[in-house]
Design goal:
mainly alpha, 6 helices, 167 residues
Length: 167
């Protein structure tokens, strides 16, 4: 794999982990996640995202410029999710389509990989830049809050952020 593709993938993964951590940071001590999220209307998802962004802004004590960069990051994340979305039913449906026959659909998997890679190449740099702009706009104490939360949280494990057997 070419170095720039590896770096892009690593950057998008890092941004996703950081934004996921920020989301969890905002939700800490808040209402637990809701099962069946895909069943909610776009309006409900938008309202939830707005609430989550406001909670992040509040917890990190963001100023107006930082909030604007957070909104830009959220929009880039949404665009990335939509670009990576794929088939109706999501990743599970895509995987199921590859194993419907007696053998694994290698050609279908290759086509799926190419589509996902193209989506990363297209929208990945914008996402990386938005993440960098947001993180770099944070004051050192705000950056430390993000790092502390990610270190303490250890990422998402189990249902509603419960720690698994290793945590």
């Amino acid at each position: 794999m070419k170095v720039w593709i590896q770096r892009s993938l690593a950057g998008v993964l890092g941004a996703s982990v950081l934004f996921g951590g920020l989301s969890a940071f905002a939700a800490a001590n808040g209402e637990p996640g809701r099962p069946g999220w895909g069943q909610h209307s776009p309006e409900e998802r938008a309202a939830h995202q707005a609430k989550m962004l406001e909670r992040i802004a509040s917890r990190l004590e963001l100023d107006a410029g930082q909030k604007a960069k957070l909104d830009t990051l959220a929009a880039a994340m949404k665009a990335q999710r939509e670009a990576m979305g794929g088939a109706p039913g999501g990743p599970r449906a895509e995987l199921q389509s590859l194993i419907t026959g007696n053998s694994f659909d290698r050609n279908g998997a290759q086509v799926l990989l190419q589509k996902k890679t193209q989506a990363l190449q297209t929208s990945g740099p914008q996402l990386i830049n938005a993440m960098g702009d947001f993180y770099d706009s944070l004051r050192p104490e705000q950056q430390q809050k993000v790092r502390d939360f990610l270190n303490r949280r250890g990422g998402h494990r189990g249902h509603h952020g419960e720690r698994g057997p290793r945590g």
